[in-house]
Amino acid sequence: MHKHKIALLVEAPDVEGGIQSAAHRHARLLSDTFEIVPIAFRKSRDERDWAGRRQELTLFGQKAYLVEAADLRADHRWSETSSIENIRQDLRFRSYADHLVDIVRDEGISLIHAFGAFHQRGLIAAFAGAKCGVPHMLSLRGVDLETRMFDAMVAPLQASILSTSLIVCVSDDARRLLEGVFRPSCPVRVIRNHFDPSLFDESIAELPELPDDPGSVIGCFGKFRRVMGLDFLIDAVAELAQRRKITLLLGGSIQKREAEYYEARIAESPACAHIVRIGSVPHRAMLGYLKRCSVAVYPSISDASPNKILEAMYARAPIVSTRVGGIPELVSDGKEALLVEARSSSALARAVEKLLDDPMFAQALTRAAFDRVTGEHAIDAERDLWVEVYLQALRLA
């Protein structure tokens, strides 16, 4: 049977975080019905790569391409008024797009799917689609919509939204924001993230570097950056540590440009002695780490359909999170989790303490959360929705 080839534009292989695990799951999920060709773009540090170069590799277990291109040092300018570095990136992104055109033609691609609008992927897909006469579609993963609206990337984001054949959002909240602000003329579908147990090893993790008597272990896992709300969790732990024995376990790397700030933030916290950082956690081992936690806390100030919430639901870890984005579409406050207002360390502390003080209530939440994630978010349902969406996008060509 003939399989349509789908160019899946994704993050570079060395990028960590939920979007990478979601792309991996997506490619694996659709490979029986379509031929998925992952294509990643990465900035080269070698000026001689300004025209771009591509290499074949294996990504997500499939034949893939990595396109690298560089900015010239001569294109870096300093603003006299703001002292903020302004970089001309136009030729680098154009080089990405030109190489994508060649790949689309060489591979006989039927549809280009920009998996997230980060790094102008949506506009790159639109460029290649127009050049090759191939339809393109866009997935908005969350913060690529909510934060790109307020920076220099809004123009390419808007252009990709207005030119694409179909858009998929991961939450109703994101869809409402998209339609209210950008007014797309194309169909907009919602496909929330789902959970695939086969991607994980559920054995209990041996947690390194914990004190002999850590008390209650509060776990937070992910790629740490400002939108994750780590500041408020640090302050909440400082408050809790005054009243009880507690350890905050942070699993994940800190975004490079924010690392200096958070290194100092943790070191200066009164709760510094109660914070254990273990670096990046292998995604396959995530359930084991979650099962070792008394409470999983995700204090996001912006999020869409976070995989980390689904993972905690499946691991039966009691959850405290915030009422932002699509999180309330995954868990209901008081039923599967405790949800608090964002940017409130005191609200986080009260919610964590409520679960620690009432283990029967915490267990009731985890049972309901497990039932919901294995029911509403079963992986077969996601596969069926994506097959339907891809066929719809191909028909719209």
Describe the structure.
It is a single chain. This protein is α/β, with parallel strands linked by helices and 397 residues long. It has 14 helices and 16 strands. The chain has helices at residues 18-30, 90-107, 121-132, 143-146, 154-163, 172-182, 230-241, 259-268, 286-291, 307-315, 327-330, 345-357, 359-375, 379-395, and strands at residues 5-10, 35-44, 53-59, 62-70, 76-78, 85-87, 111-115, 136-140, 167-169, 188-190, 216-221, 246-251, 275-277, 295-298, 319-322, 338-340. The strands form 3 sheets. Strands 3-4-2-1-7-8-9-10 form an 8-stranded mixed β-sheet, with helices on both faces. Strands 13-12-11-14-15-16 form a 6-stranded parallel β-sheet, sandwiched between helices. Strand 3 (53-59) and strand 4 (62-70) form a beta hairpin. Helix 2 packs across helix 3 (121-132) and helix 3 packs across helix 5 (154-163). The protein is globular, with a radius of gyration of 22 Å.
**Spatial order of the strands forming the largest sheet:** 3-4-2-1-7-8-9-10
Strand percentage lies at 15-25%
Fraction of residues in helices?
25-40%
Query: Tally the helices: what do you get?
Result: 14
Structural class: alpha/beta
The mean pLDDT is: 91
Supply Rg.
Answer: 22 Å
One letter per element, helices H and strands E, the order comes to EHEEEEEHEHEHHEHEEHEHEHEHEHEHHH
Which shape, going by the Cα principal axes?
A: globular
Q: What about the largest sheet?
A: 8 strands, mixed
State the end-to-end CA separation: 21 Å
Low-confidence stretches: none
Q: Compute the number of strand runs.
A: 16
